[in-house]
Amino acid sequence: MNETLTQTPETYQISAIPCSMDLATHFQKFVDYWAGGGVDYLGTAPDDTVEMPVEVSLKWKGPVAGTLVIRCFPEFLGWLKESRAYKPLHLCTEKEIFNEVSTLYCIYLIQSFWIKEASELGLILPRPSGPKDWPRREPDATCSLLAGPNPVEIRLWVEEHREARP
Predict the structure, then answer these.
(1) Which CATH number covers residue 102?
(2) Mean pLDDT of 116-129
(3) What span, in angstroms and rounded, lies between the C-alpha atoms of 24 and 20?
(4) Which of 4, 49, 54, 103 has the fewest Cβ atoms within 10 angstroms?
(5) Does residue 98 sit within a domain?
(6) Could you tell me the residue range of the domain that residue 64 belongs to?
(7) Dihedral-angle region of residue 82 (phi above 0 means left; psi in -120 to 50 means alpha; beta otherwise)
(8) pLDDT in tens, 61-93
(9) Cα gap 28→41, rounded to integer Å
(10) What is the pLDDT of residues 132-150, one digit of tens each?
């Protein structure tokens, strides 16, 4: 998808939103870089949420606003730490590494689909969350993956119209 937004004088309108396979493909590319691979696409995330004790939400604002949720089990955090393909990091804990991976993946996804708006995003920080914190509508895209032996779910909500800056 080359151009994902069309601009009118008052608003941006999203002409394309990433689908399940887009989320998975971009996550796979990111994990290939981070850990040397090992991601299998399982399909869309189930509608009935399975309890996953590790979850972060990343929200951004701007002409394109959204919420990205990444959910997993604690074993995935250890896998990320052990599989980081010798990236020199000054991060000590598995939680810090998971937060870093979540933020970088979010930025990678945003830049891949909404590059023109990337400079207007502001700060993107992962926050602990749960299903009660999600937007009150169905996500625009979801995917279920296996990263190594670890189940991971990704859910994405995108704002369809935002006021453009003058």
Answers:
(1) 3.40.1550.10
(2) 78
(3) 6
(4) 49
(5) yes
(6) 18-161
(7) alpha
(8) 877 889 999 999 999 998 888 876 555 656 678
(9) 9
(10) 999 999 999 999 999 989 9
CA-to-CA separations, 158 to 76, 113, 138, in angstroms, rounded: 26, 11, 11
Please tell me the chain's helix, strand, coil percentages from 3-state DSSP, rounded to the nearest 5. 35, 30, 40
Residues 6+ apart with CB under 8 A from 83: 34, 35, 36, 38, 148
DSSP 150: E
> Tokens 């995330």 label which residue?
45
Asked if residue 2 belongs to a domain, the reply is no
| Residue 108, CA atoms < 13 Å, CB-side half-sphere | 18
Q: Strand 150-158 to strand 141-147: parallel, antiparallel, or no bridges (unpaired)? A: antiparallel
Q: Amino acid identity, residue 25?
A: T
